[in-house]
Amino acid sequence: MDKENLNTEANSSPLGKSEGANIVIINYGAGNIKSIQFAFKRLGFEALLTNNPEEIKAADKVIFPGVGEASSAMQKLKESGLDRLVPKLKQPVLGICLGMQLMCKSTEEGHTKGLGIFDVDVKRFSNTVKVPQMGWNTINNLQSDLFKGVKDDEFMYLVHSFYAEQCKDAIATTTYDVEYASALQKDNFYGVQFHPEKSSLAGEQILRNFINL
Fold first, then answer.
1. Residues designated catalytic
2. 104/164 Cα distance (integer angstroms)
3. Complete DSSP assignment for 148-164
4. Cα–Cα separations (whole angstroms), residue 81 to 88, 189, 207, 208
5. 117: which of 8, 11, 188, 202 lies 20 to 30 Å off by Cα?
6. CA distance 169 to 119
7. Residues 6+ apart with CB under 8 A from 200
8. Taking the model in full, what pTM does it have?
9. Predicted confidence (pLDDT) at residue 6 exceeds the cutoff of 50
């Protein structure tokens, strides 16, 4: 092996793509941000927690998390102006759980208008099943490089009472009460209903794939 290749390997990140090392987790007061930050640390990356628009725009990859109630989370986005910034981002953006739902057109939770990145509505599970869905369920019909190395019927960890309906942007589906879109993609925007940071090795693989997009 020549010296140039040796230097390249020495300077590369643990994932083999040092140019993807600038990861930002949007900190807008409604996120499971610490567990996501720890997940990236396990992969060898120090992800920055910030709500600074310039730092977000300068990132190579952006994580848009969310835990809690949709209308209050959207209000926090509006107060910081991030509701206008997020849809304009050009780098890969990954919405997680409520983050993905807020990227949709609307959600029944609090009758909230979303960011409109994904042209789909978010509905509440019916009372014929236990709500929220809490625990492990499978993802299927995988259709994106986000799932490279992940097989159909892989289990992911979910905690949610609302779901994105099946739509053209769906890149994974899960069945609970109905078959719904458990992952979405449109252009540079990705969303997952499940928590990859809590989904063992398969979840880590998805985060690794996102960094390498």
1. 97, 195, 197
2. 8
3. TT--TTEEEEEEESEEE
4. 12, 19, 27, 29
5. 202
6. 8
7. none
8. 0.89
9. no
